Amino acid sequence: MMRLPEFQYRSPRTVQEAAEMLGRAPDEAMLMAGGTDLLPNMKRRQQVPRTLIGLRHIPQLRATSDGDRLTIGAAVPLSALVGNPRVRQSYTALWQAAAQVATPQLRNMGTIGGNLCLDTRCNYYDQNYEWRKAIDFCMKKDGAICWVAPSSRRCLAVSSADTVPALIALGATITLTSADRSREIPLASMYRNDGIHYLAREAGEIVAAVHLPRLQGCRSAYWKLRRRGSFDFPVLGVAAAASLLTDGTVAGSRIVLGAVASSPVELPETSAMLTGQPLTDERIAAAAESAERVARPMDNTDFTLHWRKRLVREFVVYALREIRGDDMNLYRRRVARQMLT
Question: What does the CA dihedral 34, 40, 42, 44 come to, rounded to 10 degrees?
């Protein structure tokens, strides 16, 4: 049986109080909302904070407001997003991504903020302590070598958060709060292509809220590849969003890949190929080919990297066809093992 290490637990009642607690010992304390990722990591001794700062009892972080834009508190459960008709109708990619995270029970516990800060994953890292010790650990924790690519000077653990590519494609921003200030940044700027230092937020900062702009004429989709259709991390995620004019012409688009690098991978050149054009089969195929060329999956997750790279093309086609209005339910069930209702 894997047991948790000893730790102290703090339960602040305001964001400011939580930020002050974190600011006093940013290297020894960690934030916890649902704990669905952090607690298993602690049991495997991947993360061993001396103090956990619980965020579940901060009302501000559990609130959602829908005014000029949709604002989602960082401690809002993923299941609440799945059940939100506004999210399903206007931000379909986010709804599809949240609906495919883990299981209903874990979505009840897991939060949007926790998914944004999900630890990077790797076949050599996500093992118990004894297994990792047997290979002399790895660069991400306690070792010096990245076993994915032993000559690499940086960790190649992969970003596996479902909601992140969807939110980036939808133009999301986030509010970061520390003990002495708050700032709002594009969500895309919070991620680094580094398996260890994958978050660009400063020490002592808390992700307080996610903001989504009102999107007129925007359609979006998220497609996820995983071995088990019922419960698994992505080994490929494709998020796409496009603003369509009344005649079907693409006014603007954004395509983001997940689970192929240590950070989400945006495809501006692929998106540019669609702008000013209708979503014809030929245009979609050309964009999908462009996406496949850019994708560089690492050999650190389930399935072979060559097959995952080839699937980038297919999944971009599926996402863009869905945005066009094609009925893709059969493909979701057959290919992606997704039952979204």
Answer: -170
